[in-house]
Design brief:
Length: 387
């Protein structure tokens, strides 16, 4: 699979200076962690889940989470597990390529049980999402994953969700973060990415952000994100990929504030119609939050609606200017450091301080591609929306 692989090759050629690479469930963790993109959640109770997976793959989704936790009622868990086993068998019988599939469990014992019940179809499973992850809760999950991996003979990744009240509360945050850091470092080879559960953070204080506001506008949440990145997202080789929080809105709401989406990228052709559609569906706030995610060191995003996928992927593509800067910074002859004017002559590139940024940018370029100089967000979004 590849990002934008659902659009015609000729269209990709017109959009990309460097096309996204191909990858699969057996690719390196380095590539997969960067390539997760918009990870679409779906309740495991859906009766036509196999059809949903295939449909979303055809629309550009490359990673999905099939949820046995908060998205379903407690009384539905047993039926949802049975449904998952049936749906994996259905997918296997069709012999089609599927996105990276993860199951969000509730308890460690579910991991071994599901791996056993899936049988040979476990080869379509990339791993498990582990809720409310702390050191105390996380170690049993990781041990269960390790044992299940040995039992099925297949690499299985973990994606811990950082959403517990202990992580939110100021008096326990530091200790909780250090415990999480110890746990994920011990099992580093099995941790693909860390996911932020901002909805649970807000719940602890009875908060819910409006569609006009990003997670970063809720200061108590923004403070937690900053601390998580500080401890777990460092660029010195000790950090992990941390994904952006879920965007909850996908229906028309009464707007209190003016649209945040500026007009200038939308002035040609039918672009204004696209801008209007984005505003009407409250996706202008989503676009701003995606940009803030990346500015704060996050990559990828949890999504609960298919309409969020294309914007996440369009804004993940590396611009030609970013790519040019990153290449200049990482040229071998620049190994000793120094400062230079960018090829676009609009900024300073300082080799040593900007090296980590450049390395991350080239990894993102590998999996999401590099846009042509004349291809911007609007073109990429329009292409991503094509079916």
């Amino acid at each position: 699979m590849r990002h934008f692989g659902h659009i015609a090759p000729a269209a990709r050629k017109g959009l990309f200076f460097q096309e996204p690479c191909e990858f699969g469930s057996d690719s390196s963790a380095r590539v997969l962690s960067a390539a997760l993109g918009a990870t679409l959640y779906s309740p495991a109770t859906r009766p036509r889940l196999a059809d949903d997976v295939i449909k979303q793959a055809g629309r550009g989704v490359v990673s999905m989470v099939l949820c046995l936790e908060d998205s379903i009622d407690d009384s539905e868990v047993a039926g949802a597990e049975e449904n998952l086993v049936r749906q994996f068998a259905d997918l296997d019988a069709r012999g089609v390529e599927v996105p990276l599939l993860f199951i969000r469990v509730r308890e460690p014992d579910q991991i071994a049980d599901l791996v056993h019940r899936l049988g040979d179809t476990v080869r379509m499973l990339s791993g498990f999402v582990l809720p409310k992850f702390t050191e105390e809760r996380g170690v049993p999950f990781m041990e269960a994953l390790t044992n299940a991996e040995k039992a099925c003979g297949r690499r299985l990744f973990a994606m811990p969700v950082l959403e517990s009240p202990e992580l939110l509360y100021l008096e326990t945050r530091g200790e909780t973060l250090q415990g999480i850091a110890r746990t994920v470092d011990k099992y580093r080879d099995r941790v693909l990415a860390l996911r932020l559960g901002v909805t649970d953070f807000c719940s602890a204080y009875g908060l819910r952000r409006a569609p006009d506001m990003t997670a970063y506008d809720v200061q108590i949440v923004g403070a937690v994100i900053a601390d998580v990145v500080n401890v777990l997202g460092r660029a010195d080789g000790t950090g992990f990929t941390i994904t952006g929080p879920v965007w909850e809105y996908f229906r028309l709401q009464e707007r209190m504030f003016k649209p945040q989406l500026r007009r200038s990228p939308f002035l040609e052709g039918r672009a204004e119609e696209l801008r209007t559609a984005l505003i009407e569906h409250d996706l202008d706030g989503l676009l701003r939050e995606i940009e803030l995610d990346r500015a704060n060191g996050l990559l990828g995003k949890t999504c609960i609606h298919p309409s969020h996928v294309a914007p996440v992927h369009a804004l993940s593509v590396v611009s030609h200017e970013e790519y040019s800067d990153a290449q200049d910074i990482l040229r071998p002859e620049r190994g000793g450091g120094g400062v230079m004017r960018s090829a676009y002559t609009n900024k300073m590139n300082e080799v040593k301080p900007h090296r980590a940024w450049a390395e991350r940018t080239l990894l993102r370029a590998e999996v999401f591609g590099v846009a042509r100089q004349d291809a911007g967000f609007v073109e990429l979004l329009a292409a991503g929306l094509a079916e």
